[in-house]
UniProtKB/TrEMBL annotation:
The lineage of its organism: Bacteria, Pseudomonadati, Campylobacterota, Epsilonproteobacteria, Campylobacterales. Keywords: Oxidoreductase. Coiled coil: none annotated. This is FAD-dependent oxidoreductase, possible FAD-dependent cmnm(5)s(2)U34 oxidoreductase. GO terms for molecular function: oxidoreductase activity. The keyword Transcription regulation does not apply. GO terms for cellular component: cytoplasm. Gene3D superfamilies: D-Amino Acid Oxidase, subunit A, domain 2, FAD/NAD(P)-binding domain. Signal peptide: none annotated. Residues 7-360 form the FAD dependent oxidoreductase domain.
Length: 387
């Protein structure tokens, strides 16, 4: 049985960011993924746009603002060749959206100016998902095309498929939370689709209205590469017979069935229609389509840190079910099991910041923001158990 001090399961932007910051302190790290490479799931299907969250002050907006400032600075400092800081024009969808924007003006965290039919934020950027994930994880050992079907705690170690053992186990598996046997840990899979098109239209900055449109990259004379993302699909029916199946690997390399193809075609049409409502794209050729499932928590905040052992905590404090408040530090935790999840559609904004926070918590015992921890999810769930 091969042993590592730290094992990370999931090689999207969350797992790769975690590997990067963990590597600053530790040498014994294994990064595992069921796909054949990094960023082959939702991260590879992401537009990877970095832009502000607009709105009145609240805890989630504060988190996104803090994470955006951190991530932009970090990408520029260490991965400058993979970030394009060209600014983003945010265009209101309608009169109601415009009116909302006006109410947000006193609470803007970033500089902006009126531009075309919207508002230009100079901080707006885009990164290359694959290159960023590849570089973040470059100094750690990797195991690809490997499906983890079972994790179990034996003595002081986590055992993976009875083949690998580790002191610290980190789960960054996104929408597939089948390895976590805790009811309160709830994720909604939001399937998104991104397309790359070649067009004769030179899009000079990023745009966002009902979809996001990237700055164009000239690939030959009068031909430009533009990314358009993303759709939002929540499926109510069982999709196991399609490519919209969380258990599948390398989904964007599969031969899709007709149901999948029809959904993807409809989403291409939607994206092109929304893109053309921003900028008229001439002479379009769709050259790439990627799908992936974003992981969204029930309250939209990320899930970070250790997991509460719900069974043992309720056995110890049965009155939790009656709404009795128990201090977080008194709850029973699952030892040496950590998660970074629920980053939704802002993975490339949030993950670097959250990974750094988690590593500092694990290595240096830095306290995590309780808005991000799993205590909040357990507490809400436990109070419902009496009913």
């Amino acid at each position: 049985m091969k042993e590592f001090e730290n094992i990370i399961i999931g090689a999207g932007i969350a797992g790769c960011s975690l590997a990067h910051f963990l590597r600053k302190y530790k040498n014994s790290i294994l990064l595992i993924d069921k796909n054949e490479d990094v960023a082959f799931g939702a991260s590879g299907a992401a537009g990877a746009f970095l832009s502000p969250l607009l709105g009145k002050p609240n805890a989630f907006k504060d988190l996104v603002t803090k994470a955006l400032n951190f991530s932009i600075d970090y990408y520029k400092s260490y991965f400058f060749e993979n970030i394009i800081n060209c600014g983003t024009c945010r265009i209101p969808k309608n009169k109601e959206d415009e009116d909302k924007f006006q109410t947000y003006i006193p609470y803007m965290d970033f500089e902006y100016k009126k531009f075309e039919e919207g508002y230009f934020f100079s901080i707006g950027s885009i990164v290359n998902p694959y290159e960023i994930c590849k570089k973040l994880s470059k100094d750690v050992e990797k195991l690809f095309n490997y499906e983890v079907t079972k994790i179990e705690k034996i003595d002081d170690f986590w055992i993976i498929n009875k083949e690998y053992k580790t002191k610290n186990l980190f789960l960054t598996t996104g929408a597939d939370i089948s390895l976590i046997d805790e009811e309160y840990f709830d994720i909604r899979a939001v399937w998104g689709q991104k397309i790359d098109v070649i067009t004769s239209t030179n899009v000079e900055i990023n745009y966002h209205k009902e979809c996001s449109l990237s700055k164009a990259k000239e690939i030959k004379e009068n031909r430009f590469l533009v990314s358009v993302g993303a759709t939002h699909n929540r499926f109510d029916k069982n999709m196991d017979n399609t490519s919209y199946n969380l258990k599948l690997s390398n989904i964007n390399n599969l031969q899709h069935n007709e149901e999948t193809k029809n959904i993807m075609k409809n989403d291409v049409d939607k994206l092109l229609k929304k893109a053309n409502d921003i900028k008229k794209l001439e002479n379009i050729e769709v050259i790439d389509i990627k799908i992936g499932a974003r992981a969204s928590s029930i309250d939209y905040f990320p899930m970070l840190g250790k997991l509460v052992d719900s069974k043992k905590s309720i056995e110890k404090y049965p009155h939790i079910k009656n709404g009795t408040h128990i201090k977080n530090e008194n709850l029973v935790m699952i030892d040496n099991l950590f998660v970074l999840n629920g980053v939704g559609g802002r993975g490339f904004v949030l993950s670097l910041y959250l990974a750094q926070e988690l590593v500092e918590n694990v290595v240096n015992n830095k306290k995590l923001d309780e808005n991000l921890t799993n205590y909040r999810l357990f507490s809400k769930w436990a109070k419902k158990q009496k009913r």
